[in-house]
Amino acid sequence: MAITYIESPSTDPAFNLALEEYVFKNLPRDKTYFMLWQNDNAIIVGRHQNTAEEVNAVYVSEHNIKVVRRLSGGGAVYHDLGNLNYTFIADAKDAQVIDLQYFCLPLIRALEKLGVHAGMQGRNDIVIDGKKFSGNSQYIKDDRIMHHGTILFDSDLSVLSEALKADPEKFESKGVKSVRNRVTNLRPYLPEGTTLKQFREALLANMTEGEELETYTLSPADLMGVQKIRQGRYELWDWNYGVSPDYTVRRSKRFPSCGLVELRIQVVEGRIANLAVFGDFIGNGDADELAGELKGCRMERRALTAVLELIPVSWYFFDVSSEELVDLILL
């Protein structure tokens, strides 16, 4: 069967995940589709994960990292322009029993031809010298399968480790937690001087070896369809954060001006359902009054700021600003 190659015109994560979904749902099912694409500065969380539990919210905000939820399961991953992603979309009668390795092996074979000896570890990771450089996941529906994977080519691993650094002891939830593995970039294992462009071209040539390759150019109608999905799902806070499993989070900080403030926050569908305040802090007002004002508010900086800017926070927590309280809630 011929393989149809589609190249994304964008590095926006919401667009690229929408493009995957569009191809999966709308393009003819008698073809197998292969895509190479990149996201700029993004965290992609798994379908069943608690977004707040996976990301370092303060770091993500300070570094303008986009957070988007994908359709498939698995753990959270960091993408930048040193990372290359690939996708296979195909029909499969018994898709529910297809092993992830079926779609990982072409990448392993392609790397072998480039002089890189990689192998599978566990169910969905590809490793070199025991270090993960590619994670994979799948989405299956109506006898159709979408397999996608990441390739750490030359990513900023320091940003990766900070952006995904969330404290599991501060959360109690039923969300699927990511497993942090030792990771490595692929570039040091390739011939010296290999660029991402060269690797991309070599990968495309080898990944489809033995199969006829045809290129599909997205039409204006296709792009309109992608944008509709993007705006209706992947740009929405309700999808990226709100569909997270319910959870309870604990926050605490000792402010020099007022003392220790401890928060117990129950979050349902991404919004504050209950907020209890404890600590040895000093203030004039009843902190439960302030907590009541935050019920129903999204666990998101803009929404929290909009509420707290209308409240004299320092009346409840001496000399603490609304911005400092937002930082504590999202710590």
TrEMBL record:
Catalytic reaction list: L-lysyl-[lipoyl-carrier protein] + (R)-lipoate + ATP = N(6)-[(R)-lipoyl]-L-lysyl-[lipoyl-carrier protein] + AMP + diphosphate + H(+)
Keywords: ATP-binding, Ligase, Nucleotide-binding
GO molecular function: ATP binding; lipoate-protein ligase activity; lipoyltransferase activity
Gene3D superfamilies linked: Bira Bifunctional Protein, Domain 2, CO dehydrogenase flavoprotein, C-terminal domain
A Pfam family of this chain: Lip_prot_lig_C
InterPro entries attached to this UniProt entry: aa-tRNA-synth_II/BPL/LPL (IPR045864), BPL_LPL_catalytic (IPR004143), Lipoate_protein_ligase_C (IPR019491), LipoylTrfase_LipoateP_Ligase (IPR004562)
The protein's name: lipoate--protein ligase
High-level lineage: unclassified sequences, metagenomes, ecological metagenomes
Recorded name of the encoding gene: lplJ_6
